[in-house]
Amino acid sequence: MPFGIKVVSQNCQGLVESFGKYKHSVESGLHFYIPLVQHIRIVSLAMQPIELPHYSIITKDNAEVSTSITLNYHVTDAVKYEYNNTDSVESMAQLVRGHLRDIIGRMELNDALGSTAKINADLSIAIGDLTNTYGINVDRINIDELLPSEEIQRAMDKQLTADRQRIATIAQAEGEAESIRLTNEAKNNALMATAKAQAQATRTRADAERYRIDTVQAGLTHADDKYFKNQSINAYSKLAESAANVVVVPNDDSSNYGQTALISQALKQDNNFTDDYQSSEPK
């Protein structure tokens, strides 16, 4: 009986069928079979990518989003992959869509849009190992796009613009408040510096006056009667030169000096009176 020749490529597995019934599996290499009686079906075990097209999902707050998924898978059990399901890849894709719809459906729109990494992780856990059902293992899964509808996008743009304007207004108000605070702080510092300088000047003048008084008092403690008599003479001299009618009644030995000043002033006034009387007589 003539034999057929079948070459199973690397990283593939051959399923030998006899009259349409699975008999055994063969690995990569050269294999013989009986034509019309046997058939070798080739199944690739290499990793393969697949892209799930855009489809809509409703979030918890009734917002519509469109998502697109890319995943990589490889066949782990060629028998289950080929015979247990009519289309294992499509069955896997439907399972992924169902789990993704369930995960996003329990989230609000803002949470879903900002949590794609978390959605990927939850989806990978939910899918798990599909070997027991489809003979497939999902190696990597990623959400490429997660977009809200056009109406929601326009509403979000308006809200984003309003939020930016609000933040700008708050920032401007805070800047003005900070400027006023710094200005007031600078004025207060200037006033405090001025007050401090004035207080220091007053303290310096007071210290100088106190030093002068202390010096005078220290000098007076060592002064004798001659010093005080000399001071009295100077005082009486100034009184004598004054234009006012001043009467000084001393009670010590310096009374003579005081009387001399008073007599001198009186004589000056008498002479002035005589001159005025003579000038007033008729000639």
Can you give keywords for this protein?
single chain; 283 residues; alpha+beta; three-stranded antiparallel beta sheet; 8 helices; rod-shaped
In short:
With 283 residues, the protein is α+β, with helices and mostly antiparallel strands. It has helices at residues 78-84, 88-105, 109-113, 116-127, 131-134, 150-220, 225-241, 255-280, and strands at 4-8, 12-18, 21-26, 29-33, 38-44, 48-58, 64-75, 136-148.
Characterise this structure.
There is one protein chain. This protein has 283 residues and is an alpha+beta fold. Helix content is 57%, strand content 23%. The chain has eight helices and eight strands. The strands form three sheets. It has a three-stranded antiparallel β-sheet with strand order 3-2-5, with helices on one face. A three-stranded antiparallel β-sheet has the order 6-7-8. Helix 2 crosses helix 4 and helix 7 packs parallel to helix 8. The radius of gyration is 59 Å and the shape is rod-shaped. The chain starts with a strand and ends with a helix. About 5% of the residues have low confidence.
Please report the distance between the alpha carbons of the first and last residues: 193 Å
Which residues sit in consecutive blocks of at least 5 with pLDDT less than 50?
254-267
Structural class: alpha+beta
* Strand segment count: 8
Lateral arrangement of strands in the main beta sheet: 3-2-5
Largest beta-sheet characterization: 3 strands, antiparallel
Order of helical and strand elements: EEEEEEEHHHHHEHHH
Please tally the helical runs, counting DSSP H or I stretches of 4 or more residues: 8
> What does the average pLDDT come to?
79
Strand content: 15-25%
What spatial form do the alpha-carbon principal axes imply? rod-shaped
Q: How large, in whole angstroms, is the Cα Rg? A: 59 Å
**What portion of residues is helical?**
55-70%
